[in-house]
Amino acid sequence: MTINLFRTPYVDVRVPSEEHLLHGSSVEELERDFAEYVGANYAVSVSSATMGIMLALNTVCSDEYVHVPSLIPSVVLNAIEHSGNWIKFTDNVDWIGKPYLLHTAGKTQITDSAHQVRRDQWINRDTFGRPYENPEDLMIFSFYPTKPLSGCDGGMIVSDDHDLIEHIRMLSMNGTTSERDSWKRSIVAPGWKAYMNTVQAKVVQKSLSFMDARLAIIKSVRDRYNELFKSDQDSDHLYRIEVRNAPQFILRMRDKGVNCGIHYPAMHREQIYRYGLDLSLGGYPKSEKSEETMVSIPLHYGMNVSQAEFVYESYLECK
Prior knowledge:
Blueprint lengths: L24 H14 L3 E5 L2 H12 L4 E5 L4 H9 L3 E5 L9 E6 L2 E6 L24 E5 L12 E5 L2 H11 L25 H12 L1 H19 L9 E4 L3 H10 L29 H9 E4 L7 H14 L1
Parallel strand pairs: 2-3, 5-6
Antiparallel strand pairs: 1-7, 4-5, 6-7, 8-9
Helix pairs in contact: 1-5, 2-3, 2-4, 6-9
């Protein structure tokens, strides 16, 4: 038996011959359905969550410091750089597997929810201690193949501000208006090729139709992990544990048929991003320790409770 860290989908997608492969009606349908699922008024799809971060930041702020955890994928840092803003690292290691506040620009809060998609999530967005009453707030989601709402990459930005969403849409469409026929579009501003295509939308739409069932399975596995590990984690994407030596543990678990992962390297150690160090913190001890001891064990909708118990038994033998 092999238990993988993630479950990546196999999807048979049929695109009708009359459907536009780049800007088909499936994209608009997904935007409407996804906005309804999370409880937002408006949504705009993008080619990846990374581009979503860059476009969101580019729209609401420039030449500002964006505070991000050191334990984060480099793609987030690159998006901050290319949005015209600056990186400032924090020693936060608790964000992994759940939404986190990426940036506050004036009244607008930008939340990175690449690790979580839940029904009515936008309506219940009080993660950071206060309800988000500002319609200009933005939340960014990822449809990377390993995420709970999996696709062939892609992402979504939601808000209750129509004009803000349409501005981001314009930027994602090479800075043009969004008529389906390319020869009818007008150039509005310098933008990027960052829109979601029809095939991406169709894959995510299939995943969305099973999302509640997927989350129920993930919850059953996570609840059993919480019982076994005596924890209270609430992630749908990554279940984290601490071991003495992460690389050695991962190799031992692999020998037992359990694939684990390290999430993530401490990016403040990378020379290209070192200007983002906040020397007032007195270093980044949590991030540096977690880089060596934090491991993610399998958690996905392709598992069951018995497999969770097998992972735990393997952990006891390998820790």
